[in-house]
Amino acid sequence: MTGAAGYGEGDPSLDQKMLPPRKSRTRRRRRLVAFAFLIPALVINLLVIGGPGIGSFYYAFTNWNGFTTPKFTGLDNFFTLLGDQDFWNAIAHNFIYMAIFLTVPLFMGLVGAFMLSRIRRGASLFRVLFFIPYLIASVVNAQIWKNLLDPTGGLAAQLDKIGIHWLDNIFFFGDSHLALYSVAFVDNWHFWGFLVILFMAAMQGVDASRFEAARIDGANAWQEFWHIALPGIRPTLMFALMIISLWSLLAFDYAYVLTGGGPAGSSDLVSLLVNRTAFGSLEAGYAAFMALALSLLGGIFLVIFAIIRRNEDETN
Amino acid sequence: MTEYTRRTVLRGAGAAGLSALTIAALAACGTGGSGAVSTSSGGSGPITLWYAPNNPAGWNQWKQWNVDTFEKRYPKIQITAVRQNVNTMTAKQQVALAAGGGPDLITTPGSSNAIAYGLAGYFQDLGTIAKKNKWKESMLPWALDMGYINGKLEALPVSYESMVLYYNKTVFKEHGWKVPTDRASLEKLADEMQAKGIIPFAAGNASYQPATEWLVSMFFNGFAGPSKVYDALSGKAKWTDKEFQGSIQLLKDYFVKGYFQGGVKEYFTTQDPQKYAIFASGKAAMYLSGSWEMQVFPTYFGANGNTNDWAWVPMPPLAPGVPSDTYPLSVGGTMSVNHHSKNIPAATAYIEWLFSDTKNMWAAAAATGSEPLPVKFSASDVPAAVDPRYKAQYLAINDASVAGRVGYVTWTSFGAKADSYIIANIDKVINGGLGVAPFCAGIQTSFDSDKKAGLIPPLFTTGS
After folding, report:
1. Which residues 13-52 on chain A approach chain B with CB closer than 8 angstroms?
2. Is A265 in contact with B268 (Cβ distance < 8 A)?
3. B369 phi and psi, to 5 degrees?
4. Residue B355 maps to which CATH number?
């Protein structure tokens, strides 16, 4: 292919060679300046992410208890992980969590954003209202819902007083069949407003003339959404899918405050297990290995999303 | 005096899940041997002490009795009291120590936890100070024994407690009930209570998930018996033995019968304030828990229109041959001097003051119901302002420890891994997701792992 190009067009090094010395120096200086600007961020990144990352990679292959000198144990932690029912129980919950979040809040966010995008008056108010839960500290949100869904003092008790017994004997956080879904519900309550804002911003970037043309052609709201809005925000949608997938692997705070992973491990997540293993069982090395496994899983997701995006780019 | 109770500090096991990674990165910085402190009386300058209160009022109370009083006595030493979060303190402390920092005085939730710090060389040897202050004579021998790590006195218990049966005295009086003295009378009473619509035992672990291990400890001592527990801790018996399986089976049966809070789901849902309110109101008649509860009861009993009264008795034996009137012994928290402290003399002076100023300890106990230090005392040493039930319980614990009528609890006498295993899995047993036999086998595996790692705390014996 390069043979078809003119002299020097396909070879930047030749470009360099052809530049007069002063221009070449200027370009090099510009590059150095740009690199110098990058250095502080790079150093911080290496210290804050690279350092602990390398450290935890090393500790993942040791029997470190968080205190004493670690001893290299090869693949012992890997084999322990393979037979660790608690880990597989927790990772299964992470995937359920992911499945919930890739559907419920995503659907709510898309519908909410599309509806808001069609409102002329009061859109800002709704935007703020939807976004407020996302701004409140997760611990506060969780405690509010813990009290609200308490069977003796919460919503159920208040409904009881007016003769409505729908929520009687429903133990949202105490029933092992409900706990995980109840935690996901509360987390979703705080999260979906973020998606509304994200999708709304993306929809505003879609060329308005497309919607107008569709309306002129007689498209209804659903058709506008399906054929114009959704394809128009495809990159944002992909981004949302990616961050939801990754965040579902790292979910911690709501489960920690609402159930602590209980009852009986029914809402346990890997991050909670890592925490318990490192600080409760004093098996920081094994906890680091669990975290490493989780990071690898996250890396696999990133690769999958990268491949999908590349394929899409090629198709387009 | 202190409020370094198990409840306060153990919660500190929580933190952001991936904090382990942070520790990992900082770990290489700090280990070292511990050298004995020869003097402490001339301490001066600043020292740091971390504390995580359970409630907003707890901070001021703690500061009043543990910081302000000390600073008045030792004006040359300034304490920088740092308020911590109960959910993150232990993890933060681990990270800080791994990085070569941390507070000058290190607190832990109990001996099980402290031993790993000691083995890592984070603690100063207090042996010389112990000799100087004659702690062997003034402290309860079993508690002092618990402070030794690898033959050095490093982690002093700063509070102690036992597990007993509390009951709503008013409700018992109304129904003409007598306190149970054995398993048969306990079950008969519980059935009678249920027939009258009263929950036998107030219980719940929604606020504090490890609370179920309190019951495990009580049932191990009540059904298998303290001597059997001692045998298992010393390696002469296995946790898979029928006595331990029987203990857990009985605990599960009681849950299935609805003795605890009316059922498993209710137990998992009930938060602490609800639990206390139900017990104080008489909707539940009994409560199996530790000495630390005496600090909380005044908020519910005889307050805000409640006119009910509470009392306590030792946990009745749950199997033939198990002695009655026994008291499982527990360390509610430990304190040590940070080996890397820049002001070891001042930090040591604080500990010396803590164990010598018993007047302050009793004043705090009278004002707040906080647990006493493990020091010897007689009835006449206790001021009249201290709740007589509190006084009676601690005198009974001390008498029992002299007579050898004591038991062992999971958070004091087990290693960290076994304790963590019990906390994580006992709820599965009572919920039906894990069998009794595999649960006990899991305890044995974790216990063996702790033993191999040298993480089993010193096994105390009491009596002559």
Report:
1. 51-52
2. no
3. 80, 15
4. 3.40.190.10
